[in-house]
């Protein structure tokens, strides 16, 4: 038996996604593996058990392995934990606002649960409704909704407390779990089709919960003690959910709703009720609810549900994440006083400020409608013109392209007016797997993305992982500072077969469209030469013609060497997120430094300026694919600096194009010169605001 102590680096601790990766990694080994945290010791192969440890960022866990492969298990788990368990440690996470607690609003009408499963928490008696009829809560999803209120209520589920035949009840439970799994798989596929972000991971975690062995064992134990299948399952789920809700870490505590969501899905299957939705009137409404589960939220029709306000919840809860993805204005954590609000009462919900105005007067209604109409008109106009080119008032064209992470986003980008793909993050093919994708698997996806772009250029960034972006099957040595360690092209050159396989797949796919290949984290000329040589070797093997090759400018060394690189590469793409971090020597994931790690710092702008000038002198072009590309303050500066291409998230494309059309290049050039002469990012912002 071996034991190992580790510190959890994840910004939100061992929440659902890293816990799932941890458990999946542990399940690869025959050894019995346990995890200790504080006074608790749990099964490392149970996602529920790992979650209930409540491990926060910086918390210490002890992994105990006992079995034939214990040494290998500890080594792999050590690498997995220290590299983030699938979380991108380069992206900071603000702590979730503390949710209020509220009553359950009658999701399950059941006999009292046993002592091991206390009832869900009820809301504190907080004065949510102030004297001027304004409910104040946590902003969860931006936007304004105007309409009548309607209290959300689930269909009742009645379950018996006891049953005479345990074997029959266990069989009923198995069938209900199978039915719930089929339902969840359907929901997962639908979410993948409709939403472009990582929202599908919420329901992947639900499937993990549903299949957790310890949850099922607890339910079976209850059934063996005389409880019915429904009551035994409910008690097992509620025991875990209550434990989660009591955790001091708000993000982990907020996941209690996910357990109850999965639990209710099985209870509905046991009762023969299937998927139950809210009872809604035949007109548009603003929902009032104790809480909405992820299943509730994803089933909402944005055309009917204008917005929602919940008694409990947090801004980083899964309900809020889904609301933002679906474009439904929302506020959460309002407290139980909202249940005093009557159906049909007119209200204004402002998801930007977290306010719900009850029975607004004509002046307030007119103001809200004006803001709403202004936003809608602007968004509609931008979307209507999205497929038009982004040309300045003095006839200078700027290409606006998309940052994407899968085939679905490639298709969606076309609808939002993308003129190609400026950054294909190929990591999506390598994540959440036990082993690297094969050449054929990669080829098929790259081919589909190129076909989806209908002849428009696609820049594929080669695998960008490492100490700060881990792969469970690609362990790396522990590094004191992973941001300065083996990542990006460095790691791929150290594992040449990984890069060779990806390049073969990309080059094979290149015959289906306009492919460009870009290498990340290029710092030295030797990095570029080695990467270029490998491409040439594979092209010779495949007897294929050349493709355009470029590099990301992410470190000051690359920007300073831009004149030399420009003679060799076909293009530059500036990753302003990392360039800012490395230029200012500020970890952008550090909350204490996040405001200072500003891409508008004149030092960063100077490196962008140097890069653009070097590329143009050599007859090449430069794009920007970091966050600055969609920043309304930065766009005029980038145009003025001569950036040829702006690559941003798909939804931002219409607005970026619209802004470019309002600019004159001559004005932008003057503004850029002024910005370069500033001393601080704050001064840059003031300069832009005063000159535009």
Topology (elements, then pairings):
Blueprint (H helix, E strand, L loop, with lengths): L1 E6 L8 H11 L5 E6 L2 E4 L3 H5 L8 E7 L3 H13 L26 E2 L23 E3 L1 E4 L2 E8 L6 E2 L6 H29 L5 H11 L2 H12 L4 H17 L4 H4 L2 H16 L13 E5 L4 H5 L6 E6 L7 H9 L3 E3 L13 E5 L4 E4 L3 H23 L5 E2 L5 E8 L2 H9 L5 E5 L13 H14 L4 E5 L27 H6 L1 H14 L4 E6 L5 H18 L5 E6 L2 H5 L1 H5 L4 E4 L1 H9 L17 H16 L3 E4 L9 H8 L3 E5 L3 H10 L2 H12 L4 H11 L1
Parallel strand pairs: 5-9, 8-10, 10-11, 11-12, 16-17, 16-23, 17-18, 18-19, 19-20, 20-21, 21-22, 22-23
Antiparallel strand pairs: 1-4, 2-3, 2-4, 6-14, 7-12, 8-13, 13-14, 15-16
- Which blocks of ≥5 consecutive residues have pLDDT under 50? 91-131
CATH C-level of the largest domain: Alpha Beta
Query: What is the CATH third-level topology name of the largest domain?
Result: TIM Barrel
Oligomer: single chain
Task: Please report which band the strand proportion falls in: under 5%, 5-15%, 15-25%, 25-35%, 35-45% or over 45%.
Answer: 15-25%
Ends distance:
68 Å
Mean pLDDT, rounded to whole units? 85
**Overall 3D form:** globular
Helix percentage: 40-55%
What Rg do the Cα atoms give?
27 Å
Classified in CATH, the superfamily of the largest domain is: Phosphoenolpyruvate-binding domains
Number of domains: 4
* Strand neighbour order, sheet with most strands: 6-14-13-8-10-11-12-7
| Biggest sheet character | 8 strands, mixed
CATH-scheme architecture of the largest domain: Alpha-Beta Barrel
Number of strands: 23
The computed structural class is alpha/beta
Q: Given the structure, what is the number of helices?
A: 25
